[in-house]
Amino acid sequence: MEPVCRPGTALTAAAVIGVAVALSLRSLAKVRVDDAASAAGSALIGPRIRVWYRAALEPAEEWLAANGWSPDALTYAQLALSVLAGWAYATACVFLGGCLVMTAGTLDILDGGLARRRGVPGARGALVDSIADRWAEFATFVGLGALYRDGWMLAVVALAAFGSQMVSYVRARAEGLGLAMATGRAQRPERYVLLGFGSVLSGLVGHLTCVATGRPGHGILSACLVVLAAVSVWTAVERASHAAAALGRDGTP
Amino acid sequence: MTPALARILGFVTLVHGLGLRLDSTWQGTALVVILIGAGLLAWAFAGQAFVSERRER
After folding, report:
1. pLDDT digits 0-9 by tens, A160-182
2. What is the rounded CA–CA span in Å between residue A107 and residue A75?
3. Which helix (H) or strand (E) holds A134?
């Protein structure tokens, strides 16, 4: 598909997102954070934002619970949206890909909340969720790989994909050995935000500047992918070294 | 559907519609999605105003 410049639509989208961000900041300022939530926060996304986002999603969670939706349905919907995001990236629909990544991330948060609300959190749901998450990440990164297939950025995408899978693998392996492992800068929400916001911003800036450049570029998305690759690999290494230190020389926690 | 839920759905639908309009060749579909999103947002804010007014009474 030949890329088309649409600065007018980009301006409208920027205005809609700007209004939503302004309204969000107003309600974010009113959020109170307790000690438990503070402990759960990581370096990139603070506890205040996590608490606010969960509160913002409460009407959706209530509606889903009241209408008998199962958490597994949301997990599969998240997987389907991630496949669509991969397709969007592969066809150079960067803004749309970012929107789909963020919606998929939101469904990933909602399925856990819905399971707790309905009182059905369990080993089976956790297993299905983890497996679907890995497939979802794979689908998205395959799309990004197709977008950057002709340049050195393909290596960055491969590194980001590997780092993201390793962050989850190290945690799963460590927890299998009896260690608690929920630390790190690039956990799943952080990765969703970095990739999602990066793509949305890249799409908007690309369409706004393409009047001068002649075609929408993806410079911001490339920069975000470099950061994502670096932070994911860093987190995986950090977790592995924490786990190794916690196990000690004799291998017991 | 509550106004709060309609606000969330409306925003998500509108942004995805704008994404389709911005990047894809499916311009007709994009317009339909944008209209659904805008309609949901309008309904959400009108519904919110109605609820507030009823509370005041």
Report:
1. 999 999 998 998 888 888 887 76
2. 7
3. helix A123-147
- 3-state secondary structure labels for all residues of A135-164: HHHHHHHHHHHHHCCCCCHHHHHHHHHHHH
CB contact (8 A) between residue B15 and residue A17: yes
Confidence band, pLDDT 50/70/90 cuts, at residue A159: very high
Least CB–CB distance from A99: residue in B1, B9, B19: B19
pLDDT at res. A36 = 58
Q: Global pTM?
A: 0.89
Spacing of C-alpha A79 from chain mean position: 12
For A5, which residue in chain B has the nearest alpha carbon? B22
Measured distance CA(A28)–CA(A22) in Å, rounded: 10
Neighbours of A127 (CB within 10 A): 10
When comparing pLDDT for B54 and A53, which is higher? A53
Of the candidates A16, A92, A94, which has its C-beta nearest B18's C-beta? A16
Given B9, B14, B20, which is nearest A96 (Cβ)? B20
Q: Do A99 and B15 touch (CB under 8 A)?
A: yes
Place of tokens 């749309």: A96
In whole angstroms, what is the distance from residue B52 CA to residue A6 CA? 39
- With a cut of 80, say whether residue B31 has pLDDT above it: yes
Contact B43, B11 (CB under 8 A): no
Q: Which domains does chain A have, with CATH numbers?
A: 47-247 (1.20.120.1760)
